[in-house]
UniProtKB/TrEMBL annotation:
Major place of residence: cytoplasm
Coiled-coil intervals, chain numbering: 149-176
Membrane topology term: Peripheral membrane protein
Record function comment: Autophagy-specific protein that functions in response to autophagy-inducing signals as a scaffold to recruit other ATG proteins to organize preautophagosomal structure (PAS) formation. Modulates the timing and magnitude of the autophagy response, such as the size of the sequestering vesicles. Plays particularly a role in pexophagy and nucleophagy.
One Pfam family hit: ATG17_like
Residues covered by the Autophagy protein ATG17-like domain: 16-390
Subcellular location: Cytoplasm; Preautophagosomal structure membrane
Swiss-Prot/TrEMBL GO biological process terms: autophagosome assembly; autophagy of mitochondrion; piecemeal microautophagy of the nucleus
A GO cellular component annotation in the UniProt record: phagophore assembly site membrane
UniProt KW keywords: Autophagy, Coiled coil, Cytoplasm, Membrane
Source taxon at top rank: Eukaryota
An example molecular function term from Gene Ontology annotations: protein kinase activator activity
Name under which the protein is recorded: Autophagy-related protein 17
């Protein structure tokens, strides 16, 4: 029986070539995946740093937004307090003015207390207060501040959503652990690489086997053609080559299977690395987007907030001035009303003094008249008894013949307007 050693050599050469091709393909995938992996490994620290920095920036923007909200709420509370105070002071002053308008001056019975003040300044103050309130309301109503907050919150929500998406993708790649610790890195393809390393070693062994088989076939062909080579050793060599030939298909299937597994693993690694590259690109894009937002929109929004806050501050300062003017007017008018009623009480007091002086003078006149009358009677009695017996040159005759001294009492009453009891009681009641 002829031994097909030449066919074995040809088949061994063909299978070795195929095995080399399979190994080369696997090696190409391994090389590509390793290159991408090295690139990824250089970028991972940057990516983790970017994610950490971006999260801090988002947190800072949230703090800025919350601070602006608190600041605006503070301004709103101050505006509300000042506005309420202004309206309250306006009501007080208007009530005081109403009292003045309804208070008829008792001295003429025609005019009111309001007729004695300048109305122009008050009307101007009321107009200024009304305009001031309108301007403040227009600054803090929905057409400006609310819209600004909505835009800022919407922008921040969008940035937060994008950031959360990036963090989620990083978790999917197992770049971050479950606690969002950006310093912890878990390689997602370590297991695949370990498997590939083992399979690669197996392929090297199988390729070496194909190469050895080819060498044995070539050597066997030469030995079988050598007449000096012993027949028993030829038979043993043929048996070995036949066994190797029978094993070749199974080894080839194993090599192909191993190559397919390596290729599949490498494709999975490349897929993961490509996803990483996509994430890295998205992070870089988000960095640019965040920078543009900060340099363009955020600056404009913050400037608008500062402008509104400053403008409201100026309006509130004007409100405080108006509030002080309203309080001053009200105090002055209240004092004017008290002074008016105090004047009524004072006039009444002086009228009572007039009465008291009149009574005192009348009592004094009565006493004097009694003294004069008694003196007159005593003078007549003296003259009747002694007048004829006293010589004219004993004393000055005028002393003997003088009349009772005359006393003239003049009292000018202070001219005061008449007051009714109701007017006096009303004044005293008001001043209690």
């Amino acid at each position: 029986m002829a031994i097909p050693v030449a066919q074995w050599v040809a088949d061994a050469r063909a299978k070795l070539t195929l095995a080399e091709h399979i190994c080369n393909d696997a090696n190409t995938y391994i090389t590509t995946s390793n290159e991408k992996l090295q690139l990824r490994n250089r970028k991972v620290p940057k990516l983790l740093y970017f994610l950490d920095a971006l999260q801090q920036q988002i947190q800072l923007l949230t703090v800025i937004r919350d601070s602006l909200v608190l600041n605006l709420n503070s301004v709103m509370e101050r505006r509300s307090a000042v506005r309420s105070g202004l309206l309250r002071d306006v009501d007080r002053l208007q009530n005081t003015i109403s009292v003045m308008k309804n208070t008829t001056v008792v001295f003429d019975g025609e005019t009111s207390l309001f007729d004695y003040i300048s109305e122009a300044g008050i009307e101007d103050l009321f107009a200024d207060v009304e305009q001031n309130i309108k301007e403040i309301d227009s600054l803090v109503k929905g057409n400006r501040t609310d819209a600004l907050l909505i835009r800022l919150s919407s922008d921040l929500d969008n940035l937060n959503n994008e950031m959360n998406t990036l963090i989620s993708k990083a978790h999917d790649l197992r770049l971050l652990d479950d606690q969002d610790d950006l310093d912890e890195f878990v390689d997602p393809i370590t297991k695949l690489l370990e498997i590939n390393n083992e399979l690669e070693n197996e392929m090297v062994g199988m390729l070496t086997g194909f190469n050895n088989h080819y060498d044995q076939c070539e050597k066997g062909q030469k030995l079988l053609e050598d007449p000096s080579f012993p027949e028993d050793e030829k038979e043993e060599l043929v048996t070995v080559l036949e066994n190797d030939v029978e094993d070749l298909p199974e080894v080839m299937r194993s090599l192909k299977s191993t190559g397919d597994v390596i290729t599949k693993n490498c494709k999975e690694v490349i897929k993961i690395l490509d996803i990483f590259e996509t994430l890295y690109g998205l992070v870089e894009k988000f960095i640019d987007e965040l920078q543009q937002y900060g340099e363009q929109k955020l600056v404009v929004q913050l400037n608008e907030f500062v402008e509104i806050n400053s403008e409201v501050g100026r309006k509130l300062e004007a409100s405080e001035i108006h509030k002080a003017s309203l309080a001053q007017y009200n105090d002055d008018f209240q004092q004017f009303i008290r002074s008016y009623y105090s004047l009524i009480v004072e006039v009444d007091r002086r009228a009572q003094v007039n009465q008291q002086l009149t009574m005192a003078i009348n009592n004094f006149k009565a006493t004097v008249n009694s003294i004069v009358d008694n003196d007159y009677e005593k003078r007549l009695e003296f003259l009747d008894k002694h007048g004829d017996f006293i010589p004219q040159n004993l004393i000055d005759p005028q002393i003997i013949n003088s009349t009772t001294p005359q006393i003239e009492i003049a009292f000018d009453h202070e001219p005061l307007p008449p007051l009714t009891k109701d007017a006096i009681q009303t004044a005293k009641k008001f001043l209690r």
